TrEMBL record:
Signal peptide: none
Native species: Eiseniibacteriota bacterium
Organism placement in taxonomy: Bacteria, Candidatus Eiseniibacteriota
InterPro entries, sorted: Glyco_trans_4-like_N (IPR028098)
Stated name of the protein: Glycosyltransferase
Domain of life: Bacteria
Glycosyltransferase subfamily 4-like N-terminal domain location: 101-236
Positions of the UniProt region annotated as Disordered: 411-452
Listed GO MF terms: glycosyltransferase activity
Chain intervals with Low complexity compositional bias: 411-422
Length: 482
């Protein structure tokens, strides 16, 4: 069996969507002839969010080496009086902040910490990776970013060891929506680093077609064959036995972080009008944001009439997040409307697909997310500013849910009158399949969707890990497996 060094900043006990891709690759790679060894940061590192429950998902026997990582965010806390803040990253430093000291520190981060606030990890990770190349040794290197510091580590180790290197891009580096406002000289340095990594890696992996096109634009010498698309996905095991339910509520759910620039103002206006026009909406509709959200969004939802409908569970451990998806009637994917949003394919959309719950995406109709929803038949996409279209869609779904709910309640009442010991709560306790099932889930049918289970199954983590393993096999060549 060949050995793979995986350079991953996000690894348990880190939480959030960034940890899932590397963790699931590490879980399934041995099935395809690769034994991973994870090189990551200490468990006490300054992760944006923590999820201690994910430690239980680290496979037994997986080798993990943790190398010291001095970080920018501890300095930021100390100088801005935020020592008590549990988690912090560059996204949570609001662009609306007016305090001169914090503005100066954001400028310093953008000008000096290239490619990101984890750049000081490089010497410690390189030292550890070089040592691991000797004992126990490895046949290839895999790095995943962001943070793109991971790719700089992979690049140095590639040069030192001569081992093939695969660089995995979950976001498009200098073209990412969260890219900081760097001074011109700093951006040029970052762009040169990005260019070097794309050209020196034996293969580069991206999560969507638009990202691949954006990387190829302006790089005529870039080997098209060295750029592979392996999308994010879902793990069937995460959904096994997780029940569907609604508890009598029409819950619309968004999981993950939501920051300034992706706040769905047209959606909120549509919800306000539905509150006035639809009987029972105010009492039975819920808008749930599970994750870190911008202060402006909280302020908008703190005012009537939406205040009574808003739910703020905060960041949830991954298993609880999956359970919330199955308790929802509609899953919200808020992408944005700028040019960069066309290639935005966050990990959450694949877990949305596996949940078997209708998806409403707000984003460009010609983007990767729109094409994915069209191929799978699992939801709809509206332009973020299409208030009337969003309102009409929600009204249709609400009325279909009410009719179904009233029918279920009438049936339960009739059954109870015949057999007092029997009871029920609609689909509140019906266990769902492990992943997409040949029988389309009831709530997708109710919404008028014809989901294609076979298409959705292509995005299982096990199947996608097989694609990565085949790529590693090609990069490592025909040497015998040890």
């Amino acid at each position: 069996m060949r050995r793979l060094l995986m350079v991953l900043y996000y690894f348990p006990p880190s939480g959030g969507p960034g940890v899932q891709r590397g963790l699931k690759f590490a879980r399934y790679l041995p099935e395809f002839g690769w034994r991973p060894h994870v090189l990551t940061v200490p468990a006490t590192s300054d992760f944006p969010v923590r999820d201690e429950t994910l430690l239980a998902e680290v496979p037994d026997g997986l080798a993990v080496t943790r190398a010291r990582c001095p970080e920018f965010y501890g300095l930021y806390r100390a100088l801005t009086g935020q020592r008590g803040v549990a988690s912090l990253d560059i996204e949570s430093m609001s662009r609306a902040e007016r305090r001169p000291a914090r503005r100066a520190l954001r400028w310093l981060r953008a000008a000096a910490f290239i490619p990101d606030g984890r750049v000081a990890w490089i010497p410690f990770a390189v030292r550890a990776g070089t040592r691991l190349s000797e004992t126990p040794g490895y046949d290839a290197i895999f790095s995943s970013g962001p943070p793109f510091t991971c790719h700089l580590i992979g690049r140095v180790l590639r040069r030192r060891t001569g081992k093939p290197w695969v660089a995995d891009y979950r976001d498009p580096w200098t073209q990412a929506p969260f890219y900081p406002r760097r001074p011109g000289f700093a951006r040029r340095i970052d762009e040169r680093l990005e260019e070097a990594c794309l050209r020196e890696a034996d293969a580069s992996v991206v999560v969507g077609g638009e990202m691949a096109r954006s990387f190829r634009e302006g790089r005529p010498g870039l080997d098209a064959g060295a750029l592979e698309v392996i999308p994010n996905g879902y793990d069937e095991a995460d959904f096994a036995g997780v029940p569907f339910g609604d508890a009598g509520l029409f819950r619309m759910t968004h999981t993950g972080s939501l920051f300034l620039g992706r706040i769905p103002h047209a959606l909120f206006s549509a919800l306000e009008r539905l509150t006035r026009e639809e009987p029972e909406w105010a009492g039975r509709a819920r808008l749930c944001f599970a994750g870190r959200v911008d202060r402006e969004l909280r302020a908008r939802l703190a005012a009537p009439p939406l205040a009574a409908q808003a739910e703020w569970p905060g960041y949830l451990p991954h298993a609880e997040s999956v359970a919330l998806l199955r308790r929802s009637q509609l899953l919200l994917l808020l992408i944005g409307s700028d040019a960069q949003s066309r290639g935005m394919l966050t990990g959450k959309i694949y877990e949305y697909l596996a949940a078997g719950v209708p998806i409403l995406a707000l984003g460009p109709r010609d983007g990767d997310a729109a094409r994915l929803l069209e191929r799978t038949g699992a939801g709809w996409i509206h332009e973020p500013e299409d208030e009337q279209g969003i309102r009409d869609r929600l009204r249709t779904l609400w009325r279909a849910w009410r009719a179904s709910r009233e029918g279920a309640e009438a049936g339960a009442a009739a059954m109870a009158s015949r057999a007092p010991e029997a009871g029920g709560d609609g689909d509140a306790s019906r266990a769902g399949p492990a992943g997409p099932d040949a029988a389309m889930p009831e709530r997708l049918e109710r919404a008028g969707l014809s989901a294609r289970a076979g298409e959705i199954a292509r995005y299982s983590r096990r199947a996608l890990t097989g694609e990565l393993a085949r790529l590693l096999d090609r990069c490592a060549g025909g040497r015998d497996r040890g």
